[in-house]
């Protein structure tokens, strides 16, 4: 049985837990670094990326999160979480966890009144997936090892690089649990391979 | 085909603010302090509620210059207040690209009977409530987020506590009612029946409910979180304090770790004087902003 955590410093935490549980897996709200030890995978939820980064630093989550990733455990970043995973952020010199080789642009679709929902095809995961974009970022470009999973209006909105998954929309806000299901599979695979290595 | 302004998009925006603090600011400099301190959004105002109280007269939508200045200063969402029932102020704010509109009793109401029909707008709205009837009427009109009314600009938490407790207690009552009891209850509290049915099913409101109106210290913010608030609005408290930077950070942290008393104790050290605050019984009926709408 695997356990998946949701970084619970700020944002849509409860909804992610619901989506994890809908896939038949235990979800845990993570507020302290010690909790990372018992986890097999972690979701960094949507919220305000500036706020989340400040709280990550304040509670010394930064290094433990990097170590979690280095240990080969999967991380899924949604919306603000995607920004935290990116190596490059347009218009900024600094980045955050820098785990996925990609450039992102914040609030790239505009302000709240431009926020939208649309049906997307996600390669290898789901067709006709209900995606909710809220003041969303998009991925401007990806490195060689990063696979593009979905685009909207030719902008990249979901990508995967090894154990890291990122999307610009909010899989937790609908009853369509297929993308979270894909992450659950990634975590199950990684646990198997970590156990056998 | 993409769709804008849907319930999911508008309510979802408020979901992203959960566990966070929304701060009142009156200029770009304060907005930056708020963002730096970890606020999830700012409310752009001409005057904070305590100053609105002191100034008296009619309080209206802020000068668009101030709202624009704040929007240009920060990357977090920017909210602004329109008068209750003032559809033109609301449309002006929407056209400026404000991320959320507060149809607020802090401003002098433009309509003493009707609220704005908020589901006609692409921009989401937050509204104040004192009980479940008021909460569901606002949701019925299209509010995508709620907050307690409290008593703004007083630095006194007592009314926000009353309103949060009332809403939570009524949700618990509704959850245990039979359908036939529910119709009479809906009539008694003036709530849309269909919404009460939904709340009974899910055991919670269909939108996020923040605390607002009188939060003056980190401990106040934590108290409201313990009572079931999804996050907090802090109005006059921050920039009326002696050290706004430190105060703002302390409120953010107390909201995140609302059950870590040792931490809240540490955060509360040396914050200087919080705003003075007012006793409820010193307010006349006209002074009570919370009673300006139903």
TrEMBL record, chain A:
Pathway(s) it belongs to: Cofactor biosynthesis; pyridoxal 5'-phosphate biosynthesis
Gene Ontology cellular component terms for the protein in this record: cytosol; glutaminase complex
InterPro entries in alphabetical order: Class_I_gatase-like (IPR029062), PdxT/SNO (IPR002161), PdxT/SNO_CS (IPR021196)
Keywords for the protein's UniProt record, in alphabetical order: Glutamine amidotransferase, Hydrolase, Lyase, Pyridoxal phosphate, Transferase
Binding site for L-glutamine: 47-49, 106, 134-135
Pfam family, one: SNO
Cross-referenced Gene3D superfamilies: 3.40.50.880
One annotated GO molecular function: glutaminase activity
Residue numbers annotated as active site: 79, 170, 172
Gene Ontology BP terms: L-glutamine catabolic process; pyridoxal phosphate biosynthetic process; pyridoxine metabolic process
CDD domains listed in its UniProt record: GATase1_PB
Catalytic function, reaction form: aldehydo-D-ribose 5-phosphate + D-glyceraldehyde 3-phosphate + L-glutamine = pyridoxal 5'-phosphate + L-glutamate + phosphate + 3 H2O + H(+); L-glutamine + H2O = L-glutamate + NH4(+)
Entry EC number(s): 4.3.3.6, 3.5.1.2
Keyword Hydrolase assigned: yes
Stated role: Catalyzes the hydrolysis of glutamine to glutamate and ammonia as part of the biosynthesis of pyridoxal 5'-phosphate. The resulting ammonia molecule is channeled to the active site of PdxS.
Family statement drawn from the similarity comment of this UniProt entry: Belongs to the glutaminase PdxT/SNO family.
PANTHER family (UniProt xref): PYRIDOXAL 5'-PHOSPHATE SYNTHASE SUBUNIT SNO, PYRIDOXAL 5'-PHOSPHATE SYNTHASE SUBUNIT SNO1-RELATED
Self-association state and partner proteins as the record states: In the presence of PdxS, forms a dodecamer of heterodimers. Only shows activity in the heterodimer.
Protein name: Pyridoxal 5'-phosphate synthase subunit PdxT
Organism: Pontibacillus yanchengensis Y32
Automatic annotation (TrEMBL), chain B:
InterPro entries: Aldolase_TIM, PdxS/SNZ, PdxS/SNZ_N, RibuloseP-bd_barrel
GO biological process: amino acid metabolic process; pyridoxal phosphate biosynthetic process; pyridoxine biosynthetic process
EC numbers: 4.3.3.6
Keywords in alphabetical order: Lyase, Pyridoxal phosphate, Schiff base
UniProt binding sites for D-ribose 5-phosphate: 24, 153, 214, 235-236
Amino acids binding D-glyceraldehyde 3-phosphate: 165
Pathway: Cofactor biosynthesis; pyridoxal 5'-phosphate biosynthesis
Subunit structure: Homohexamer and homododecamer. In the presence of PdxT, forms a dodecamer of heterodimers.
Protein's job: Catalyzes the formation of pyridoxal 5'-phosphate from ribose 5-phosphate (RBP), glyceraldehyde 3-phosphate (G3P) and ammonia. The ammonia is provided by the PdxT subunit. Can also use ribulose 5-phosphate and dihydroxyacetone phosphate as substrates, resulting from enzyme-catalyzed isomerization of RBP and G3P, respectively.
Positions annotated as active site in the UniProt record: 81
Domain PdxS/SNZ N-terminal: start-end pairs: 7-212
Record family assignment: Belongs to the PdxS/SNZ family.
NCBIfam families, A to Z: PRK04180.1, pyridoxal 5'-phosphate synthase lyase subunit PdxS
Protein name, UniProt field: Pyridoxal 5'-phosphate synthase subunit PdxS
GO molecular function annotation: pyridoxal 5'-phosphate synthase (glutamine hydrolysing) activity
UniProt xrefs under HAMAP family: PdxS
Catalytic activity: aldehydo-D-ribose 5-phosphate + D-glyceraldehyde 3-phosphate + L-glutamine = pyridoxal 5'-phosphate + L-glutamate + phosphate + 3 H2O + H(+)
């Amino acid at each position: 049985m695997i356990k998946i955590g949701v970084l619970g410093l700020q944002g849509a935490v409860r909804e992610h837990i619901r989506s994890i549980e809908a896939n038949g897996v235990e979800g845990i709200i993570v507020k302290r670094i010690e909790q990372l030890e018992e986890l097999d995978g972690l979701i960094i939820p949507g919220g305000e990326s500036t706020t989340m980064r400040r709280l990550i630093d304040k509670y010394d989550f930064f290094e433990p999160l990097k170590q979690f990733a280095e240990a080969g455990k999967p991380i899924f970043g949604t919306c603000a979480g995607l920004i935290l995973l990116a190596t490059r952020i347009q218009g900024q010199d600094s980045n955050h966890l820098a785990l996925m080789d990609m450039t992102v642009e914040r609030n790239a679709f505009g302000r709240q009144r431009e926020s939208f929902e649309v049906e997307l095809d996600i390669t290898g995961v789901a067709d006709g997936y209900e995606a909710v974009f809220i003041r969303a970022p998009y991925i401007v470009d990806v490195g060689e090892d990063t696979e593009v999973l979905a685009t909207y209006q030719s902008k990249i909105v979901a990508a995967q690089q090894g154990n890291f998954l990122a999307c610009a929309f909010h899989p937790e806000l609908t009853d369509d649990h297929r993308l979270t299901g894909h992450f659950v599979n990634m975590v199950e695979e990684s646990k198997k391979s970590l156990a056998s290595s | 085909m993409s769709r804008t302004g849907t319930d999911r998009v508008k309510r979802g925006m408020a979901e992203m603010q959960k566990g966070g603090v929304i701060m009142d600011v009156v200029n770009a400099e304060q907005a930056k302090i708020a963002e730096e301190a970890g606020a999830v959004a700012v409310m752009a105002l001409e005057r904070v509620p305590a100053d609105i109280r002191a100034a008296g007269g009619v309080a209206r939508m802020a000068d668009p210059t101030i709202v624009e200045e704040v929007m240009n200063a920060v990357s977090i969402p920017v909210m602004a207040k329109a008068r209750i029932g003032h559809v033109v102020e609301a449309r002006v704010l929407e056209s400026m690209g404000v991320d959320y509109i507060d149809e607020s009793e802090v401003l002098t109401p433009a309509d003493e009977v009707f609220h704005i029909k908020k589901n006609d707008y692409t921009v989401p709205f937050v509204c104040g409530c004192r009980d479940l009837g008021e909460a569901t009427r606002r949701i019925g009109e299209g509010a995508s987020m709620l907050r307690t009314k409290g008593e703004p600009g007083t630095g006194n938490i007592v009314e926000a506590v009353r309103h949060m407790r009332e809403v939570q207690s009524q949700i618990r009552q509704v959850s245990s009612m039979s359908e036939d009891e529910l119709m009479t209850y809906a009539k008694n509290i003036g709530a849309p029946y269909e919404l009460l049915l939904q709340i009974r099913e899910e055991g919670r409101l269909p939108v996020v409910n923040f605390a607002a109106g009188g939060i003056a210290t980190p401990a106040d913010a934590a108290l409201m979180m313990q009572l079931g608030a999804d996050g907090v609005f802090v109005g006059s408290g921050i920039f009326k304090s002696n050290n706004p930077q430190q105060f703002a950070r302390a409120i953010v942290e107390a909201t995140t770790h609302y059950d870590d008393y040792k931490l809240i104790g540490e955060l509360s050290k040396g914050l200087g004087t919080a705003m003075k605050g007012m006793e409820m019984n010193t307010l006349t009926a006209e002074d009570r902003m919370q009673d300006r709408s139903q």
